Amino acid sequence: MKILIAMMKHETNTFSPIPTNWKRFEDWGIHFGSKALEVYQHTGMPMAAYIDLAKSIGAEIITPVAAEAMPSGVVHAETYNRLTDSICEAVNSGCDIALLDLHGAMVSETTDDGEGTLLEKIRTISPNLPIAVTCDFHCNLTHKMVDNCTALIGYKTYPHVDMYQVGKQIGQVVLDTYEEKLIPVMTRQQLPMLTHTLKQGTDDQPTKSLIDACRQAEQQEDVLAATFFGGFPLADMPDAGASTVVVTNQNPDLAQRTSFDIASLAWKQRKQFVYQCGSLPEQVKIARELSSYPVILLDHEDNCGSGGTQDVMAVIREMVEQNLDGVAVAAVYDPGAVTEMQKAGVGKEMTITLGGKTEIPSLQLKPKPLELTGKVKVLSDGKWTVHGPMYTGVKVDMGPTAVFDTGKIKIVVVSLHHEPWDVGVFTSVGILPEKEKYLLLKSRIHYRAGFEGIGKQTLHCDGEGVTTSRYELLDFKKLRRPIYPLDHNVEFHNN
Length: 495
Ligand SMILES: [Zn+2]
What we know:
This protein is of the alpha/beta class. Helices cover 29% and strands 22% of the residues. The chain folds into two domains: 2-273, 3-Layer(aba) Sandwich (Rossmann fold), CATH 3.40.50.2300; 280-468, no CATH class. An eight-stranded mixed sheet has the order 13-14-17-18-12-19-11-20. Strands 1, 2, 3, 4, 5, 6 and 7 form a seven-stranded mixed sheet that branches. The chain is globular. The protein starts with a strand and ends in a 35-residue tail after the last strand. It binds zinc ion (ZN). Residues 136-138, 160 line the site of zinc ion.
């Protein structure tokens, strides 16, 4: 038996000014053939689960491509075509099963539905091929995706720490389908709702109740997989937002009923998915008054893990103005500042113009760097391996990295975008996060994977950037309407 295993992942923030070209994928990782297998086997990724499953039955494995890029703007046509062509050509050369590790929110210059378009192409080449698909919790699920694969599942955790398990679960369903032990049927329900990412943590309500409902559903006989997707709202495409999908064995009624029940439960709790923004000066003032350390501060509107430029200085500027002392920041993207610090050398005192280099036309934000005086504390190559629960075993590359220390604030400055979801972002440059008073993280929920056990308290800092929760600032043109919470009188129907 020949099993095709491939990974193609991108969460496209259509409001992000960061271009998504071939280099963007190279920065995080793009590998072909046996190298793809070598890099991702023995990791916590769905692809690793697929590889283990295929090996356990002695199948021949082909891995045409494994590619992921940090979230950013619309994927360039040429890049999208090269990625999808490599998978389609491998399908064309012949395989018995395809196990795909996708994200489910890819928008390219040629299609708003990157994954659905890929799956449709694969279906055209090989109409009866059993296809398993894993998607991120932030998948914007489309009809085309569901209609063109055998069984689809999403992560049940945010931070995403169950990627391997869901890969194993859905991969097994499709292996059993190939052996004619199962006949999967799937139903999708789309909710007219954009949730706020800050309310999507799967350990908190309302999301926890929906994940519990999915797990309960999977206890039922014939339910092979049940998923609630929080969705990725920062995408101006018709299908952005929350959805559910349920896979059953030969039982379309059960799939329909279960997917609708879970979607209805989400709809009932829609108000709880709304994050109320506050005033940044007030939030930093509150941080000053806390006394149980470390305090985690989230610069959540500039999260590069969802397409942020990671160089918006609004929150750091406010901290400097309020004289906050004992802060470690992860991380500011500024390759130019790193080069300057490399030239100066460790220990050198200098004044730098940090961050604020990227213009953000979607929010009419002009570049606004921050002048700081301090010392170059550390220089590193920015490479380290994850030991924490998310992306376990994966090698991280932050590019040339420096720590700039103002005496009150230590800032990790990176040359490649990196969301701080693991303590390695600090420990790799000699900062012990548990010893700091404040940890300012440019993250929203994923920081919990590595930092939840360290922080005594967490505060949101409403700065600026393309991962804003102020959806009313974003100019949605293609999104289906009406949609909650942008519109009034929105209704949800069984679909
Ligand atoms: Zn995600």
